[in-house]
Amino acid sequence: MQELKLFLGPQHPGMHGNASVHMFVEGDIIKRSYLLPGMLHRGFEKGMERHTWLNNIGLIPRVCVVEPDINEMCFAQGVETLLGIEVPERAHWIRMIILELARLSIHMMAYGGIGGPTGLYTLMYHAHADRNDILNIFEKITGHRVYHMYIVPGGVRKDLPVGIEKDIHQFLDSLESRYAEYRDLGIDNPTVRARTVDTIMLPESVVWELGVTGIGMRSAVGKEYDVRKVMPYARYDQVEFTVPTNTYSDANNRIDCKLQEILQSISIIRQCLAKMPEGPVRVPLGRGQSMRWTVPKGYAYSVVESSRGEFGYFMVSNGGTHPYRVGVRGASYPQGLLGIEKYLPGTRIDDAALWVDTMGVCSPEIDR
Predict the structure, then answer these.
(1) What span, in angstroms and rounded, lies between the C-alpha atoms of 107 and 125?
(2) For 342-354, what is each residue's pLDDT tens digit?
(3) What's the structural domain count of the chain?
(4) Which of 23, 202, 205, 349 lies most in the core, judged by the most C-beta atoms within 10 Å?
């Protein structure tokens, strides 16, 4: 057999994001592989040093295009820790609504993403249509569909618009009513099961070796490690939800955990809408001098639970108007870069796209 070099992405419809997996194959078996995570944005961490604290609000969402709000939350929490301020109570609950809507959005995108590589385009169309409804809600709340710049240091940029609670409830009711249909279209479909059961494994030993968190870890080792539970932020300690786990991490069980998380996010959003108090949504920081914000010297590590696992910002301030240093802990770095190089070899060519999708790879947070 002759070894041949193939490219998956960035133009390939099975590739998620503007990245490329280079595969060296013999027949249809991958022998060597590596990820080129560029082709989109890069140099975020250095770029943050060249922007003021305020201007970074427009840069950071691009660290993960499909789930930008976690970056806003990490950055805001870090600045608030350095400033020593507490955001208003209502802002905590609004932030949770935004973050869980974002989690629903990326889970629907990922679930629909298995439709392309498996030839089940109905699943992809349905899931992306529902994601579009979430983007409509984001547009009503923030004025933007993808990059929101809504969670800011001190709270949120503005209060929720009048009547948005009705729109959110209608969407959640619609999505929940079709949950069984989504399972039939995807994870319970014989075609998907043939491609995902006992394949694209992520065993416990690899989880610990690479430092995988999130669904990749929880579906393999059965541990309920979720930052929302173990290190609660916002008001996650005041809502009831469970953390789906499993002890056999093939692609099928990872997908199943995503689907279970969808139901949990629906429940969390409903609880937030019911418990959210009235009041201010932002601590004023500057009285028109926000471009000249100075943050006291110090450092902070801000962490949230993204759809792919623990996502963190390590932030250092030297007391100036710009961050001295920001380091991003990208949740998909272990499985998205190291995993592709070390454990994608041995699988088939047609499994590469499913690896990227079910492992939850967001390429810009790798090439940061």
Answers:
(1) 14
(2) 888 988 888 888 8
(3) 1
(4) 202
